[in-house]
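Side project, low priority. Logging it here so it doesn't get lost.
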Amino acid sequence: MLLRCFQEEFLEAGCDEAGRGCLAGPVFAAAVILPEGFFLDGLNDSKQLSHAQRELLRPVIEKEALAWAVASCDHEEIDKINILNASFLAMHRAIEKLQCQPQYLVIDGNRFKAYPQIPHSCIVKGDGKYLNIAAASILAKTHRDEYMTNLHSDYPHYNWQQNKGYPTISHRKAVIEIGLSPYHRKTFNVSDPQLNLFSKAV
C-alpha cells in the first residue's frame, strides 16, 4: 500500500515527469500536494495503469489535491540543454506554478537539480511508494498524452495518437522513411541499425 507522502513535518509536493524517452514532443512534469488523510483507490505508478484507469484518476486528483500543476519543456529546449536538464526544468516550472508553495519536495528517480530554498529527497521508484508522486506521474502522463494526441491530426504518419511519441517500431520506420517532423527531437537519433536492434528486442 502506498503512503500519502514521504514525511509529515512539512507541506510536501510529489514530482514526476513523463516523456523522457520519446523521440518527439515535450517532456511534461507535474507537482502535486495532497491533503492529510488522502486516499484514492487504484492510485499507483502511471506505468502500472491502463489509459482508461489514468483518465478516471486524473479528474479526481485535480479536484481533491490541495494544489497541483503541470508544466513542460519543448523539443527545442530538450535539444539545447539535453533531456535530463529539460526534465529538471519542467519540474521546476511545475513547482513554480503551484498555488501554495511546498516546504519539501519528493522526486521520482535518483537525480534532481535542487529547487531554490526547498529541500528535497529523490526516491527511486517513488511513484510506486508514495501517493503524491504517483498522482504527479498520472497528471504528467495524461497531460502529455493529450498534447501528443492533439498533434496527431497534423502529423498522422507518425501515429502519435497511439504511440505518444515513444520509439515504437512503426514510429521509427516512419521517421526513417518520411523524415523528422517539426516536433521531433533532433538530438535523438534514429537509424536502421537502431531499428533492427529494437525489432529483435521486441
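Brief comment: The chain has seven helices and five strands.
Revisit when time allows.
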